[in-house]
Amino acid sequence: MSKVARHPRHPAVVNMNLEGIAQRYTIRFADIKPDWNVFGDSNYDGYRRAQFRYIGETLGKPEIRHIPAGATRLSVMYVPPGEGNAPHTHPVEEVFFVLKGNLTVFFEEEDGRRVEENLGPWDCVSCPAGVIHGFQNNGLEPAYLQVMVGQKKPEPMGYADVKLDAAEPRMQVDRGTLKDALWVSQFGAV
Asked: Which CATH number fits domain 27-185: 3.40.50.300, 3.90.180.10, 2.60.120.10, 3.40.50.720?
């Protein structure tokens, strides 16, 4: 029985055989090392977490082994009790899918108003581009969550706290101009 591929192969795999594709596009947990220093806020109490990168690169950190990103990056985050991440934004959506444990995910306005959602295993939230958001493990057990970011190449997070944003040197630009430039780069002129 013959089969027909209804879509063309991605240029990166056009000349690869199936064994090569399977080898390059499969990664095992045992081959991934946790990175505790991947984010600018990771050195501050309350924001410590480890990232296990599966798909796509991490900003400024060439991975020894990861699956190349098409249009999405994926990692698993280990979050100890009492830890989380700083309020931040991305130029694209970021999705949190809780695998184990409990997290409080928050959305914030620039005036400080905050809305929180408590998530447990198999709960999911999508944080839209440009909306300040983050998470905190307020439980007594570690939490594991899958994190997906809808972009191939990583960009620095835009921390809402100016002192944390200083840890990301490439983000030292006028915030209004940055927001406008990111919007236009993602969605075109209004």
From this structure: 2.60.120.10
Distances (CA, A) of 184 to 93, 137, 165: 15, 34, 22
pLDDT in tens, 25-68: 888 888 888 888 878 888 888 988 988 888 887 766 665 567 88
- The SS3 of residue 1 is coil
Q: What is the pLDDT of residues 59-117, one digit of tens each?
A: 666 655 678 888 888 999 999 999 999 999 888 899 999 999 999 999 999 888 999 99
Q: Where are the domains of the chain?
A: 27-185
- Residue 125 pLDDT level (bands cut at 50, 70, 90): very high
Contacts of 127 (CB under 8 A, 6+ apart): 90, 93, 94, 95, 96, 105, 107, 133
Residue 18 neighbours by CB distance under 10 Å? 8
Q: List phi, psi (to 5°) of 182.
A: -65, -40
- Spatial separation of the C-alpha atoms in residues 133 and 114, rounded to whole Å: 9
First-to-last C-alpha distance (Å) of the chain: 51
The contacts of residue 153 (CB under 8 Å, 6+ apart) are: 57, 69
